[in-house]
Amino acid sequence: MTASDAELAATAERALQRLRAASPLLSAQLDDDAVAAQVARVAIASDFAIATLARQPSLLSTLLEGQAHAFALPPLDPGNRGDWQALLRRHRAAESTRLVWRDVLGLDAVDATLAGTTALAECCLQAGLAALEMDFVERHGVIRDADGNAQRLVVFALGKLGGGELNFSSDVDLVYGYDDDGESDGPRPLAAEQYYSRLGQQLAKLLDEVTADGFCHRVDLRLRPFGNAGRVAWSFAAMEQYFQREGRDWERYAWQKARPVAGAAAAGERFLRTLRPFVYRRYLDYGALDGLREMKAAIAAEVARKELADDIKRGPGGIREIEFLVQALQLIRGGREPALRERRLLPALSALVQAGHIEAQAGAALRDAYRFLRRLENRLQMLRDAQTHALPQDPLERTRIARSLGHDDWANLRAALDLHRGVVAAEFGALLAPRRRRGGEPAALAGYWRALPEAGDRQALAEAGFTDAAAGDSALRDLARAPALRALSDAARARLDRVLPALLDSAATSPQPDAALRRLLPLLHNILRRASYLALLDEQPAALQRLVDVLARSALLGERLAAHPLLLDELLDVRVGGPLPDREALFAACAAALVHDDTEAALLALNESRQALSFRIALATLDARQPAQDSVRQLAWLADAVVAVVLRLAQREMLAAHGSLADARFAVLGYGSLGGEELGFGSDLDLVFVYEAAAAAQSGGARPLDAARWCARLAQKIVALLGTMTAAGRLFDVDVRLRPDGAKGLLVSPLPGFADYQRERAWTWEHQALVRARCVAGDEALCAQFERVRDSVLAQPRDPARLRADVVAMRARMRAELDRSDPARLDLKQGAGGLVDLEFLLQYLVLRDAPLRPSLRLARDTPGLLTALCDAGTFDAATCAQLRHSHALLLDAGLRCTLDRRPRMVAPSAQVVAACAAIAGACRAHGLAFDRAGTRVEDA
C-alpha cells in the first residue's frame, strides 16, 4: 500500500467512525461491508456529505434504497414560521447529499447532477417566496393590475441557474421584477417598488443568512440594473428603459440565460420577449466580440492579480471561456437564427454545430471539456460545500479529488485537465483573434483615406487600379465629409479606418473596379450609423471580400445591399454555399411572420425573409451554383409563399373589421411568369382572384358586407399589402389586368362567372395565358375547382387555322410594341427567336392538341410543357434537345442581365444566335411565322 493509499484509507475510516459514533442506526448499517464500502467512497469525495449523514442519520437508509428523485421539501406555513430557515437548510443539505451520493457512486452523469442542483435551488426559491408572500398579504395586502388581478413578484435567475446548469455550491444570481406600479390594498399599504423590494430582500435573507444549520443558498443581487447602487426590485417598464439607454455588453451575456424561476413566471416570460431585441440583434452582431474582449481582458487581469491560473472557472481554458465562446456565437447570430436562442450551454453548443457555425469535431471536443470541467468543479465544491474553483494545493486533497474521479493520482488527473484546457483555450483564442487580411493593410490606400477630406492624392486610386480616379476621389471626399462619419465613436472610426482601405484594395483588384467602388459608397453611407456592420466587415475579411465580389458583378444586389444592409448577413450565412431551401422550407420561413399580431410588424418580418431568401437565390445564380431554371422556379415558390401569408394577413384584417363570411371560399391565381414558375428578380405578379359564396351571404361582423363586396375588399387588401412600403421595401408590384374583361372587369370573379367567361367570351390570348395559370394560394377545394375549369377550357376543340392566325397576330402586335432589338443587340425576351416566341409556340401547340391529348393540359412551366410535347411526339428528339438548351441559355443570359441592372439585351454571340435560330425554326415548322409577321408590321 502506498502512502497515498494509506492516507485515503485513514480518511475513510475516520468518517466511518464519526458516523458510528453519531447514531446507533448508522453503526448497525455500517456493519454491512458493502454499505461501509459505499460510504467510504463518498467519504473520500465529500466531508460535507459525511457531516450531513451524521446530523441526519435516517438519510442513509433512503440513499441505500437508491433514491433517484428529489426529496420533498416540508411545507412552510404560518404554523411553523420560526422553523422556515431550518427546514430549508436541512432540506438543502439532504438533497445535496443525495446528489453527492449519486455522483460519486456513478449513478448520475454530470448533466443530471447539474439539473438536480438547479431544481433544488428553484424549489427553495419557490417555497420561500410563497411562504413570505403569505406574510405580506396579511400585513400589506396585494398589488393589483388595472383589471383587479393580483400581481406577484418575478424572480429572474441569471447565470448558471438561469441556464439550468447550477454547480454544486454556487451562489444564485437573481434579479427581481414586477409588472406594473401601484399600491397594495392591505391594512398597511406599500407602493409596488417598496413592496417587492422588501419581499425580495426577505427572500434573500431567508435563503442566504448563515444559521446554526448553515445556509440554504448564497444569493447575489448585483446583476440588477446599476448593481448595488440600483433599487432592489424594478418594474418591467423601468428595466426596459434601462436596457435601452444604459444596457452594456456584459448585461447582454447575463440576460441571455435569464429565466423566471419563482413568482409570476408567465409575466416574466412576457418581459423576456420584450427584452429579446436587446440581447439578440436583428443582424449578424460581430460587435458582440468587442464586449467579450473587454470582459476577457478584465478576467485575465483578475486572474493575474490574484494568481488564479489554477482556477478552472476563470483561468485559461476554463469553464468561463467555453461559456463565452458559445454565448458570443449565439449573440452574433441568434437575432437571425432563432434555433440558437438557447439558455442551456450544451444544447446551445449542439445548435451551433447543427447550424454549421462550429465544426463537429471542435464541438465534440468542447462538449467533452465542458463536462470534464463541470464534474471537476462539482467535486472541488462537494469536498466541503465551498464555493471554490481553485485546484487544491494540499497533497491529500489532490489525491482525494483524483481518486474520487477515477484517476490513479493527481498527475494523471492534471494531464487530462491540461489537455481539455488546451483545447478550450485554442478555440476561444481563435474566436477573439483579430482576423488578418492577406497581404496586410494597403498602406498607400490607408494613407490616402486618412488624409481625406482636406488632403490626399487621388493618384493613389489610379495606381491601385481605378480607371476613373477623379470620380472615385470626389465620392470618397463626400463620404469623409458626411456628418454621420464625424459622429462615429472612436472605436467605430478606428474600424472604418481599417475597413475602408481594405474595401478599396479589394475593389481595385475586382473585375470592375470603378463599378464596385461606385456601388460600395451608398452602402457605406447607410451603415455608418450601424457599428455592427462595420464590425462584421472588420472581423470577417471573407465577408468583406465577398461583398466586393458581389458588388463588382451585380448592380441589382449592390442596390439591395445599400437599401437593406441587413442583407450583409447573408454574405456570411453558412447556408449560402449549401443547398437552397425547397418549397416547404420557403413556405415555413415566410409563415414565421404570422406570429406577429400587428400587420405592420408581420409585413416587415415577411419582407425581411423574402429579401434574404431572394438574395440567397441571386447569389447562387450569380455564382452559377445552380441553373437559371432552378432559380426562377425558387423565386416563384417564394412568391407563392409570400402571397399565401399576405392572404392570411388580409383575412385576419377582414375578420376583425367585418366578421367572417360563412361557407365562402377564396383563391388567388397566378398567371404569367408566376403561374409558369419562371419568375425573375424584381418581377411583378400577375394575379387573378376568384371566390365562391352564396349570393345572399353576409359577413357576421359589426360592419357586415355581402359576399361580393367582402371578397372584393379582401382582394384589394391583398394587392395593397403586397405593395405596402416597409423598412425592408415592398413585397411585390401586382398586375391584375389579366382578370376577365381586363381593367374594365370586376377585381374578383365568382368561379362560375370566371368559367363562363373563359368558355364563351375569352380571347385566344386569354386562353394562351390560361395555359400557364395555376392556383397559388387559398381554399384547396376552390383551387381544385379552378383546375377542373382550366382543364375543360383547354380541352375545347379549336379551329387550327383561326388559332394560328390569332397567335401570330398577337405576337406581331407585341413584337411591334415591345421588341427593343437593334443591329448590335438582341432582345432576349421579345426579340426574334426569343423567350416569348418559345412561350407562344408552346401555348399554341397546347391549345391545338390538348383536346385530344390530356397530358398537355397538366404542365405550366416551359420545361414541363416541352417535356409533355416531346412525349406526345410533337417535336422530334433533336428539336426537343435544341429547344431545352435554347430555353436554358436565354433564361440564364436574361437573369444575368437583370442581376447587373442591364436591359435583357445581348450582343448576338454564336451561342445566342444558334439558340434563337432553333426557336424560330421550330416556330416556322409549325406554321408560326413570327419573324415575317413582325417584319410586315414594322414595314407598315
From TrEMBL:
<dbReference type="Pfam" id="PF03710">
    <property type="entry name" value="GlnE"/>
</dbReference>
<dbReference type="InterPro" id="IPR023057">
    <property type="entry name" value="GlnE"/>
</dbReference>
<dbReference type="GO" id="GO:0047388">
    <property type="term" value="F:[glutamine synthetase]-adenylyl-L-tyrosine phosphorylase activity"/>
</dbReference>
<feature type="domain" description="PII-uridylyltransferase/Glutamine-synthetase adenylyltransferase">
    <location>
        <begin position="293"/>
        <end position="431"/>
    </location>
</feature>
<feature type="domain" description="Glutamate-ammonia ligase adenylyltransferase repeated">
    <location>
        <begin position="37"/>
        <end position="273"/>
    </location>
</feature>
<feature type="region of interest" description="Adenylyl removase">
    <location>
        <begin position="1"/>
        <end position="443"/>
    </location>
</feature>
<protein>
    <recommendedName>
        <fullName>Bifunctional glutamine synthetase adenylyltransferase/adenylyl-removing enzyme</fullName>
        <ecNumber>2.7.7.89</ecNumber>
        <ecNumber>2.7.7.42</ecNumber>
    </recommendedName>
</protein>
<dbReference type="Pfam" id="PF08335">
    <property type="entry name" value="GlnD_UR_UTase"/>
</dbReference>
<dbReference type="GO" id="GO:0008882">
    <property type="term" value="F:[glutamate-ammonia-ligase] adenylyltransferase activity"/>
</dbReference>
<dbReference type="InterPro" id="IPR043519">
    <property type="entry name" value="NT_sf"/>
</dbReference>
<keyword id="KW-0460">Magnesium</keyword>
<feature type="domain" description="PII-uridylyltransferase/Glutamine-synthetase adenylyltransferase">
    <location>
        <begin position="809"/>
        <end position="892"/>
    </location>
</feature>
<feature type="region of interest" description="Adenylyl transferase">
    <location>
        <begin position="446"/>
        <end position="940"/>
    </location>
</feature>
<keyword id="KW-0808">Transferase</keyword>
<dbReference type="GO" id="GO:0016874">
    <property type="term" value="F:ligase activity"/>
</dbReference>
<comment type="similarity">
    <text>Belongs to the GlnE family.</text>
</comment>
<comment type="function">
    <text>Involved in the regulation of glutamine synthetase GlnA, a key enzyme in the process to assimilate ammonia. When cellular nitrogen levels are high, the C-terminal adenylyl transferase (AT) inactivates GlnA by covalent transfer of an adenylyl group from ATP to specific tyrosine residue of GlnA, thus reducing its activity. Conversely, when nitrogen levels are low, the N-terminal adenylyl removase (AR) activates GlnA by removing the adenylyl group by phosphorolysis, increasing its activity.</text>
</comment>
<dbReference type="InterPro" id="IPR005190">
    <property type="entry name" value="GlnE_rpt_dom"/>
</dbReference>
<keyword id="KW-0547">Nucleotide-binding</keyword>
<keyword id="KW-0548">Nucleotidyltransferase</keyword>
<keyword id="KW-0067">ATP-binding</keyword>
<keyword id="KW-0436">Ligase</keyword>
<dbReference type="InterPro" id="IPR013546">
    <property type="entry name" value="PII_UdlTrfase/GS_AdlTrfase"/>
</dbReference>
<keyword id="KW-0511">Multifunctional enzyme</keyword>
<feature type="domain" description="Glutamate-ammonia ligase adenylyltransferase repeated">
    <location>
        <begin position="544"/>
        <end position="788"/>
    </location>
</feature>
